[in-house]
Amino acid sequence: MSAPASAEFAGVLGANYANADITHGGGSIDSYGIAGGGMFGLSPDWAAQVDGGYHHLSGSGSDAENWNIDGAAFWRADAGRIGAAVGYNDVTGGGGHATNYGLFGDWYATQSITLGVKGGWFNASGNSDGEYAGVALTGYVMPDFSLTGSYDYSHFKGFTTENDYTIQGEWLVSERTPFSVYGGYTRSEFSGTGGVAANTWFVGVRFYCDPTDSATLVSRQRNGAEIYGTSFGPAALHL
Protein backbone atom coordinates (compact mmCIF):
# COMPACT_ATOMS: atom_id res chain seq x y z
CA MET A 1 0.00 0.00 0.00
CA SER A 2 1.62 3.25 -1.12
CA ALA A 3 1.53 6.54 0.77
CA PRO A 4 -1.56 8.62 -0.11
CA ALA A 5 -1.26 11.61 -2.44
CA SER A 6 -1.12 15.08 -0.89
CA ALA A 7 -4.15 16.74 -2.51
CA GLU A 8 -6.88 14.30 -1.58
CA PHE A 9 -9.86 14.63 0.71
CA ALA A 10 -11.33 11.64 2.55
CA GLY A 11 -14.33 11.76 4.83
CA VAL A 12 -16.66 9.53 6.79
CA LEU A 13 -20.22 10.39 7.83
CA GLY A 14 -22.39 8.21 10.04
CA ALA A 15 -25.60 7.90 12.00
CA ASN A 16 -26.04 5.68 15.05
CA TYR A 17 -28.27 4.58 17.89
CA ALA A 18 -27.27 3.25 21.30
CA ASN A 19 -29.04 2.07 24.45
CA ALA A 20 -27.18 2.08 27.77
CA ASP A 21 -28.64 0.11 30.68
CA ILE A 22 -27.21 1.25 34.02
CA THR A 23 -27.06 -1.35 36.78
CA HIS A 24 -28.31 -1.02 40.38
CA GLY A 25 -31.49 0.72 39.32
CA GLY A 26 -29.78 3.46 37.37
CA GLY A 27 -32.27 3.28 34.53
CA SER A 28 -31.39 3.46 30.85
CA ILE A 29 -30.28 6.07 28.33
CA ASP A 30 -31.13 6.15 24.65
CA SER A 31 -28.79 8.02 22.31
CA TYR A 32 -29.11 8.76 18.62
CA GLY A 33 -27.35 11.17 16.33
CA ILE A 34 -24.76 11.79 13.66
CA ALA A 35 -20.97 12.05 13.55
CA GLY A 36 -18.40 12.61 10.85
CA GLY A 37 -14.87 13.56 10.02
CA GLY A 38 -12.92 14.98 7.10
CA MET A 39 -9.23 14.38 6.37
CA PHE A 40 -7.26 16.80 4.19
CA GLY A 41 -3.92 15.82 2.68
CA LEU A 42 -1.28 18.48 3.33
CA SER A 43 1.63 16.63 1.72
CA PRO A 44 2.41 13.03 0.75
CA ASP A 45 3.24 12.31 4.40
CA TRP A 46 1.08 14.73 6.42
CA ALA A 47 -2.66 15.25 6.84
CA ALA A 48 -5.07 17.26 8.99
CA GLN A 49 -8.55 16.28 10.13
CA VAL A 50 -11.67 17.91 11.58
CA ASP A 51 -14.45 15.89 13.28
CA GLY A 52 -17.83 16.77 14.74
CA GLY A 53 -20.94 15.10 16.09
CA TYR A 54 -24.33 15.62 17.69
CA HIS A 55 -26.38 13.17 19.77
CA HIS A 56 -29.68 13.44 21.60
CA LEU A 57 -29.81 11.64 24.94
CA SER A 58 -33.02 10.65 26.70
CA GLY A 59 -33.66 8.64 29.85
CA SER A 60 -35.26 8.71 33.29
CA GLY A 61 -37.67 11.43 32.20
CA SER A 62 -35.01 13.91 31.08
CA ASP A 63 -33.29 14.87 27.86
CA ALA A 64 -29.83 16.20 27.01
CA GLU A 65 -27.81 17.18 23.97
CA ASN A 66 -24.26 15.97 23.37
CA TRP A 67 -21.99 17.98 21.03
CA ASN A 68 -18.39 17.26 20.18
CA ILE A 69 -15.74 18.71 17.88
CA ASP A 70 -12.07 17.91 17.46
CA GLY A 71 -9.10 18.53 15.22
CA ALA A 72 -6.03 16.43 14.50
CA ALA A 73 -2.81 16.39 12.51
CA PHE A 74 -0.87 13.24 11.71
CA TRP A 75 2.06 11.76 9.84
CA ARG A 76 1.26 8.75 7.66
CA ALA A 77 3.27 6.02 5.98
CA ASP A 78 2.83 2.54 4.57
CA ALA A 79 3.21 1.01 8.05
CA GLY A 80 0.72 3.27 9.82
CA ARG A 81 0.13 6.76 11.15
CA ILE A 82 0.88 8.81 14.26
CA GLY A 83 -0.59 12.13 15.30
CA ALA A 84 -2.00 14.53 17.88
CA ALA A 85 -5.59 15.55 18.57
CA VAL A 86 -7.50 18.12 20.60
CA GLY A 87 -11.26 18.04 21.16
CA TYR A 88 -14.21 19.43 23.09
CA ASN A 89 -17.19 17.42 24.36
CA ASP A 90 -20.27 19.00 25.98
CA VAL A 91 -23.44 17.46 27.43
CA THR A 92 -26.26 19.91 28.24
CA GLY A 93 -29.05 19.31 30.75
CA GLY A 94 -26.95 18.47 33.80
CA GLY A 95 -24.15 16.61 32.05
CA GLY A 96 -20.51 17.57 31.97
CA HIS A 97 -18.03 18.96 29.50
CA ALA A 98 -14.39 18.23 28.82
CA THR A 99 -11.53 19.38 26.62
CA ASN A 100 -9.10 16.60 25.73
CA TYR A 101 -5.54 16.66 24.39
CA GLY A 102 -3.72 13.55 23.24
CA LEU A 103 -1.66 11.45 20.89
CA PHE A 104 -2.70 8.46 18.77
CA GLY A 105 -1.16 5.95 16.44
CA ASP A 106 -2.07 3.08 14.12
CA TRP A 107 0.21 0.21 13.16
CA TYR A 108 -0.75 -1.88 10.13
CA ALA A 109 0.82 -5.05 11.48
CA THR A 110 -0.28 -7.20 8.53
CA GLN A 111 -2.64 -6.83 5.57
CA SER A 112 -5.49 -7.91 7.85
CA ILE A 113 -4.52 -6.62 11.33
CA THR A 114 -4.43 -3.04 12.61
CA LEU A 115 -3.36 -2.01 16.12
CA GLY A 116 -4.53 1.40 17.31
CA VAL A 117 -3.48 3.24 20.48
CA LYS A 118 -4.33 6.62 22.00
CA GLY A 119 -3.76 8.51 25.22
CA GLY A 120 -3.67 11.94 26.79
CA TRP A 121 -5.31 14.12 29.40
CA PHE A 122 -8.46 16.22 29.75
CA ASN A 123 -9.89 19.17 31.66
CA ALA A 124 -13.47 18.40 32.73
CA SER A 125 -16.24 20.27 34.52
CA GLY A 126 -16.48 20.01 38.30
CA ASN A 127 -12.69 20.08 38.65
CA SER A 128 -12.62 16.49 37.37
CA ASP A 129 -9.44 16.67 35.33
CA GLY A 130 -7.79 13.41 34.41
CA GLU A 131 -6.11 11.12 31.94
CA TYR A 132 -7.31 8.72 29.27
CA ALA A 133 -5.82 5.88 27.25
CA GLY A 134 -7.01 3.19 24.89
CA VAL A 135 -5.99 0.32 22.64
CA ALA A 136 -7.93 -1.32 19.79
CA LEU A 137 -7.16 -4.43 17.77
CA THR A 138 -8.93 -4.75 14.41
CA GLY A 139 -8.92 -7.91 12.35
CA TYR A 140 -10.22 -7.86 8.79
CA VAL A 141 -11.84 -11.27 8.52
CA MET A 142 -12.50 -10.34 4.90
CA PRO A 143 -11.40 -7.15 3.09
CA ASP A 144 -14.90 -5.71 3.61
CA PHE A 145 -15.65 -7.09 7.10
CA SER A 146 -13.84 -6.21 10.32
CA LEU A 147 -14.01 -7.26 13.96
CA THR A 148 -12.59 -4.90 16.59
CA GLY A 149 -11.94 -5.36 20.28
CA SER A 150 -10.93 -2.31 22.32
CA TYR A 151 -10.22 -1.21 25.87
CA ASP A 152 -10.55 2.43 26.99
CA TYR A 153 -9.53 3.95 30.33
CA SER A 154 -10.58 7.33 31.73
CA HIS A 155 -9.59 8.63 35.17
CA PHE A 156 -11.64 11.52 36.56
CA LYS A 157 -9.70 12.87 39.55
CA GLY A 158 -11.84 12.93 42.68
CA PHE A 159 -14.76 11.29 40.87
CA THR A 160 -14.28 7.88 39.26
CA THR A 161 -12.16 5.68 37.04
CA GLU A 162 -13.97 4.30 34.00
CA ASN A 163 -12.99 1.10 32.19
CA ASP A 164 -14.70 0.39 28.86
CA TYR A 165 -14.55 -2.97 27.08
CA THR A 166 -15.95 -2.97 23.52
CA ILE A 167 -16.47 -5.49 20.75
CA GLN A 168 -17.89 -4.47 17.38
CA GLY A 169 -18.19 -5.62 13.80
CA GLU A 170 -18.43 -3.57 10.59
CA TRP A 171 -19.40 -4.67 7.07
CA LEU A 172 -18.92 -2.57 3.92
CA VAL A 173 -22.04 -3.39 1.93
CA SER A 174 -20.68 -2.16 -1.42
CA GLU A 175 -17.19 -1.11 -2.48
CA ARG A 176 -18.56 1.19 -5.19
CA THR A 177 -21.35 2.71 -3.08
CA PRO A 178 -19.36 2.74 0.16
CA PHE A 179 -22.01 2.35 2.85
CA SER A 180 -21.21 0.17 5.85
CA VAL A 181 -23.27 -1.12 8.76
CA TYR A 182 -21.82 -1.78 12.18
CA GLY A 183 -22.89 -2.82 15.65
CA GLY A 184 -21.47 -3.87 18.96
CA TYR A 185 -21.48 -3.86 22.74
CA THR A 186 -19.63 -1.90 25.44
CA ARG A 187 -19.30 -2.76 29.11
CA SER A 188 -18.46 0.32 31.19
CA GLU A 189 -17.33 -0.13 34.80
CA PHE A 190 -16.90 2.74 37.28
CA SER A 191 -14.81 2.69 40.44
CA GLY A 192 -16.04 4.25 43.68
CA THR A 193 -19.71 3.92 42.72
CA GLY A 194 -20.70 0.79 44.61
CA GLY A 195 -20.39 -1.46 41.59
CA VAL A 196 -22.39 0.66 39.15
CA ALA A 197 -21.79 -0.29 35.51
CA ALA A 198 -23.37 0.37 32.13
CA ASN A 199 -24.15 -2.12 29.38
CA THR A 200 -24.43 -0.41 26.01
CA TRP A 201 -25.60 -1.89 22.71
CA PHE A 202 -25.12 0.19 19.59
CA VAL A 203 -25.79 0.04 15.84
CA GLY A 204 -25.00 2.46 13.04
CA VAL A 205 -24.28 3.17 9.40
CA ARG A 206 -21.33 4.94 7.79
CA PHE A 207 -20.68 6.47 4.39
CA TYR A 208 -17.05 6.66 3.26
CA CYS A 209 -16.12 9.49 0.90
CA ASP A 210 -12.70 9.42 -0.74
CA PRO A 211 -11.16 9.79 -4.21
CA THR A 212 -11.35 6.13 -5.18
CA ASP A 213 -14.23 4.76 -7.23
CA SER A 214 -14.00 1.33 -5.62
CA ALA A 215 -12.07 0.20 -2.55
CA THR A 216 -12.28 -2.28 0.28
CA LEU A 217 -13.12 -1.45 3.89
CA VAL A 218 -9.52 -1.97 4.99
CA SER A 219 -8.26 0.39 2.28
CA ARG A 220 -10.81 3.11 3.04
CA GLN A 221 -10.07 3.02 6.77
CA ARG A 222 -6.29 2.97 6.45
CA ASN A 223 -6.17 5.70 3.77
CA GLY A 224 -9.10 7.75 5.07
CA ALA A 225 -10.17 9.70 8.12
CA GLU A 226 -9.06 8.48 11.54
CA ILE A 227 -11.95 7.11 13.63
CA TYR A 228 -10.63 5.48 16.81
CA GLY A 229 -7.61 7.65 17.61
CA THR A 230 -9.47 10.97 17.56
CA SER A 231 -12.53 9.76 19.50
CA PHE A 232 -13.11 10.77 23.14
CA GLY A 233 -16.38 10.51 25.07
CA PRO A 234 -16.37 8.48 28.28
CA ALA A 235 -19.79 7.47 29.56
CA ALA A 236 -19.12 9.24 32.89
CA LEU A 237 -19.70 12.55 31.11
CA HIS A 238 -23.29 11.50 30.39
CA LEU A 239 -24.23 10.00 33.77
Compact overview of the structure:
The chain is mainly β and 239 residues long. It has 1 helix and 12 strands, in the order E-E-E-E-E-E-E-E-E-E-E-E-H.
Which helices and strands appear, and what pairs or packs with what?
Elements: E1 9-22, E2 27-41, E3 46-59, E4 62-77, E5 80-91, E6 97-110, E7 113-124, E8 130-142, E9 145-156, E10 160-172, E11 179-190, E12 197-209, H1 217-223
Antiparallel strand pairs: 1-2, 1-12, 2-3, 3-4, 4-5, 5-6, 6-7, 7-8, 8-9, 9-10, 10-11, 11-12
Describe, in plain words, how this protein is organized in 3D.
Helices cover 3% and strands 67% of the residues. The chain has 239 residues and is mostly beta strands. It has one domain (9-237): Autotransporter beta-domain (Lipocalin, Beta Barrel), CATH 2.40.128. It has a twelve-stranded antiparallel beta barrel. The longest helix has 7 residues, at 217-223. Mean pLDDT is 92; it is low at 1-7.
Question: Number of helical runs?
Answer: 1
Low-confidence stretches: 1-7
Q: What would CATH call the architecture?
A: Beta Barrel
The helix content is under 10%
CATH topology: Lipocalin
Strand content: over 45%
According to DSSP, the number of beta strands is 12
CATH class: Mainly Beta
Derived from helix and strand composition plus strand pairing, the structural class reads mainly beta
Q: Tell me, what's the shape? A: globular
